[in-house]
Amino acid sequence: MINVRAIRATDEAAYLDILRRTTDDDRYYRFFRAVDHFDHADVARFVEPVPSIIGIIAIDDTHGLGVAHAFISDGAAEIALVVAADAQRRGIGRRLVGGILDQLAARGIATVTAVSLWENLGFAALARSFGMTATHAPGDGSVVHWRLVLTTRTSIDLEAHDPITPKPSVSSPPQRPLRRASRLEPTRSYVFSWRLLRSTISSMRP
Fold first, then answer.
1. 164, pLDDT greater than 70
2. Separation CA 16–CA 168 (nearest Å)
3. What gap in Å lies between CA 28 and CA 177, rounded to an integer?
4. Helix (H), strand (E) at residue 106
5. What mean pLDDT is predicted for residues 102-108?
Protein backbone atom coordinates (compact mmCIF):
# COMPACT_ATOMS: atom_id res chain seq x y z
CA MET A 1 0.00 0.00 0.00
CA ILE A 2 1.34 3.43 -0.99
CA ASN A 3 0.11 6.44 0.98
CA VAL A 4 0.48 10.17 0.48
CA ARG A 5 0.10 12.43 3.52
CA ALA A 6 1.42 15.52 5.24
CA ILE A 7 5.05 15.19 6.26
CA ARG A 8 5.78 15.01 9.99
CA ALA A 9 8.80 15.51 12.22
CA THR A 10 8.87 11.73 12.71
CA ASP A 11 9.48 11.31 8.94
CA GLU A 12 13.05 12.61 9.12
CA ALA A 13 14.60 9.15 8.72
CA ALA A 14 12.30 8.30 5.82
CA TYR A 15 13.13 11.59 4.05
CA LEU A 16 16.86 11.04 4.54
CA ASP A 17 16.50 7.50 3.18
CA ILE A 18 14.76 8.87 0.05
CA LEU A 19 17.63 11.29 -0.58
CA ARG A 20 20.21 8.54 -0.11
CA ARG A 21 18.37 6.36 -2.64
CA THR A 22 18.82 8.87 -5.46
CA THR A 23 21.43 8.50 -8.22
CA ASP A 24 24.20 10.94 -9.17
CA ASP A 25 22.04 12.17 -12.05
CA ASP A 26 19.02 12.58 -9.78
CA ARG A 27 21.01 14.77 -7.41
CA TYR A 28 22.45 16.79 -10.27
CA TYR A 29 18.93 17.57 -11.47
CA ARG A 30 17.83 18.37 -7.93
CA PHE A 31 20.70 20.59 -6.75
CA PHE A 32 22.43 21.67 -9.99
CA ARG A 33 25.72 20.32 -8.66
CA ALA A 34 27.32 17.07 -7.49
CA VAL A 35 26.07 16.10 -4.03
CA ASP A 36 27.21 12.93 -2.30
CA HIS A 37 26.29 13.45 1.34
CA PHE A 38 23.15 14.14 3.37
CA ASP A 39 22.77 14.21 7.13
CA HIS A 40 20.38 15.25 9.90
CA ALA A 41 20.87 18.98 9.39
CA ASP A 42 20.05 18.74 5.69
CA VAL A 43 16.55 17.36 6.25
CA ALA A 44 15.43 18.29 9.78
CA ARG A 45 14.18 21.77 8.84
CA PHE A 46 12.05 20.32 6.04
CA VAL A 47 10.03 17.96 8.23
CA GLU A 48 9.27 20.37 11.09
CA PRO A 49 5.97 22.30 10.82
CA VAL A 50 6.57 25.78 9.34
CA PRO A 51 3.69 28.05 8.24
CA SER A 52 5.49 29.11 5.05
CA ILE A 53 6.30 25.54 3.94
CA ILE A 54 3.96 22.73 2.91
CA GLY A 55 5.46 19.24 2.81
CA ILE A 56 3.93 15.91 1.81
CA ILE A 57 5.48 12.46 1.64
CA ALA A 58 4.70 9.25 -0.27
CA ILE A 59 5.42 6.10 1.72
CA ASP A 60 4.75 2.40 1.52
CA ASP A 61 4.83 -0.31 4.17
CA THR A 62 8.63 -0.30 4.45
CA HIS A 63 10.13 3.07 3.44
CA GLY A 64 9.66 6.50 1.94
CA LEU A 65 9.25 6.91 -1.81
CA GLY A 66 9.17 10.63 -2.49
CA VAL A 67 8.71 14.07 -0.96
CA ALA A 68 7.35 17.37 -2.27
CA HIS A 69 7.50 20.84 -0.75
CA ALA A 70 5.98 24.22 -1.50
CA PHE A 71 7.79 27.34 -0.26
CA ILE A 72 5.27 30.16 0.18
CA SER A 73 6.22 33.84 -0.07
CA ASP A 74 4.25 36.98 -0.97
CA GLY A 75 1.15 35.09 -2.06
CA ALA A 76 3.02 32.74 -4.42
CA ALA A 77 4.71 29.36 -3.96
CA GLU A 78 7.71 27.59 -5.46
CA ILE A 79 7.45 23.80 -5.54
CA ALA A 80 10.17 21.16 -5.34
CA LEU A 81 10.09 17.38 -5.25
CA VAL A 82 12.30 14.35 -5.18
CA VAL A 83 11.46 10.70 -5.84
CA ALA A 84 13.80 7.85 -4.91
CA ALA A 85 15.41 6.14 -7.90
CA ASP A 86 13.76 2.79 -7.13
CA ALA A 87 10.31 4.44 -6.88
CA GLN A 88 10.23 6.33 -10.18
CA ARG A 89 7.79 5.68 -13.04
CA ARG A 90 5.03 4.66 -10.62
CA GLY A 91 2.94 7.84 -10.68
CA ILE A 92 4.37 9.07 -7.38
CA GLY A 93 5.65 12.40 -8.71
CA ARG A 94 2.23 13.13 -10.20
CA ARG A 95 0.45 12.37 -6.91
CA LEU A 96 2.90 14.51 -4.95
CA VAL A 97 2.49 17.51 -7.25
CA GLY A 98 -1.28 17.11 -7.26
CA GLY A 99 -1.33 17.01 -3.47
CA ILE A 100 0.82 20.12 -3.17
CA LEU A 101 -1.37 22.03 -5.64
CA ASP A 102 -4.50 21.07 -3.73
CA GLN A 103 -3.00 22.33 -0.48
CA LEU A 104 -1.90 25.60 -2.09
CA ALA A 105 -5.34 26.14 -3.60
CA ALA A 106 -6.91 25.53 -0.18
CA ARG A 107 -4.70 28.29 1.23
CA GLY A 108 -5.72 30.68 -1.52
CA ILE A 109 -2.33 30.67 -3.27
CA ALA A 110 -2.90 31.64 -6.90
CA THR A 111 0.57 31.47 -8.47
CA VAL A 112 2.86 28.43 -8.44
CA THR A 113 6.40 28.40 -9.84
CA ALA A 114 9.22 25.91 -10.30
CA VAL A 115 12.71 25.87 -11.83
CA SER A 116 14.27 22.93 -13.65
CA LEU A 117 17.18 22.14 -15.93
CA TRP A 118 16.50 22.02 -19.66
CA GLU A 119 17.62 18.37 -19.74
CA ASN A 120 15.04 17.34 -17.16
CA LEU A 121 12.43 16.17 -19.63
CA GLY A 122 10.71 14.04 -17.01
CA PHE A 123 9.75 17.07 -14.97
CA ALA A 124 8.93 19.02 -18.14
CA ALA A 125 6.31 16.43 -19.05
CA LEU A 126 4.97 16.37 -15.50
CA ALA A 127 4.75 20.17 -15.33
CA ARG A 128 2.97 20.44 -18.68
CA SER A 129 0.48 17.77 -17.64
CA PHE A 130 -0.61 20.09 -14.81
CA GLY A 131 -0.86 23.06 -17.15
CA MET A 132 2.39 24.79 -16.20
CA THR A 133 3.98 27.03 -18.85
CA ALA A 134 7.71 27.41 -19.42
CA THR A 135 10.06 30.32 -20.04
CA HIS A 136 13.84 30.39 -20.15
CA ALA A 137 15.96 32.38 -17.74
CA PRO A 138 17.48 35.44 -19.48
CA GLY A 139 20.99 34.62 -20.62
CA ASP A 140 20.82 31.02 -19.41
CA GLY A 141 19.25 28.55 -21.82
CA SER A 142 19.97 25.63 -19.48
CA VAL A 143 17.36 26.75 -16.92
CA VAL A 144 13.60 26.61 -17.41
CA HIS A 145 11.18 28.62 -15.26
CA TRP A 146 7.69 27.14 -14.86
CA ARG A 147 4.52 28.98 -13.86
CA LEU A 148 0.96 27.97 -13.11
CA VAL A 149 -2.06 30.07 -12.16
CA LEU A 150 -4.23 27.90 -9.94
CA THR A 151 -7.95 27.48 -10.51
CA THR A 152 -10.38 25.66 -8.24
CA ARG A 153 -9.12 22.12 -7.63
CA THR A 154 -10.69 19.15 -5.91
CA SER A 155 -9.02 18.80 -2.53
CA ILE A 156 -7.55 15.52 -1.35
CA ASP A 157 -7.26 14.41 2.25
CA LEU A 158 -3.51 14.16 2.86
CA GLU A 159 -4.09 12.19 6.04
CA ALA A 160 -6.07 9.53 4.19
CA HIS A 161 -4.21 6.41 3.16
CA ASP A 162 -5.21 6.20 -0.47
CA PRO A 163 -3.21 4.02 -2.87
CA ILE A 164 -1.58 5.80 -5.75
CA THR A 165 -3.18 4.91 -9.04
CA PRO A 166 -0.58 4.56 -11.82
CA LYS A 167 -0.96 7.29 -14.42
CA PRO A 168 -0.16 7.04 -18.13
CA SER A 169 3.09 8.68 -19.13
CA VAL A 170 2.93 12.11 -20.75
CA SER A 171 5.05 12.75 -23.80
CA SER A 172 6.80 16.09 -24.13
CA PRO A 173 7.23 17.91 -27.46
CA PRO A 174 10.47 17.39 -29.39
CA GLN A 175 13.35 19.14 -27.67
CA ARG A 176 16.63 20.51 -28.92
CA PRO A 177 19.68 18.21 -28.48
CA LEU A 178 20.45 17.64 -24.84
CA ARG A 179 23.52 19.19 -23.35
CA ARG A 180 25.74 16.81 -21.40
CA ALA A 181 23.55 13.97 -22.62
CA SER A 182 26.32 11.44 -22.02
CA ARG A 183 25.86 11.90 -18.26
CA LEU A 184 22.34 13.13 -17.81
CA GLU A 185 19.47 10.81 -18.59
CA PRO A 186 16.31 12.83 -19.37
CA THR A 187 14.02 10.53 -17.43
CA ARG A 188 13.85 12.01 -13.94
CA SER A 189 10.84 13.77 -12.46
CA TYR A 190 12.60 16.19 -10.15
CA VAL A 191 12.35 19.93 -9.86
CA PHE A 192 14.97 22.24 -8.50
CA SER A 193 14.18 24.92 -5.91
CA TRP A 194 16.41 27.97 -5.67
CA ARG A 195 15.44 28.46 -2.03
CA LEU A 196 16.24 24.85 -1.21
CA LEU A 197 19.60 24.99 -3.03
CA ARG A 198 20.77 28.06 -1.17
CA SER A 199 19.84 26.67 2.25
CA THR A 200 21.10 23.15 1.50
CA ILE A 201 24.50 24.15 0.10
CA SER A 202 25.16 26.40 3.08
CA SER A 203 24.76 23.48 5.48
CA MET A 204 26.19 20.66 3.36
CA ARG A 205 29.62 19.21 4.03
CA PRO A 206 32.26 19.42 1.26
1. no
2. 29
3. 18
4. helix 92-106
5. 95
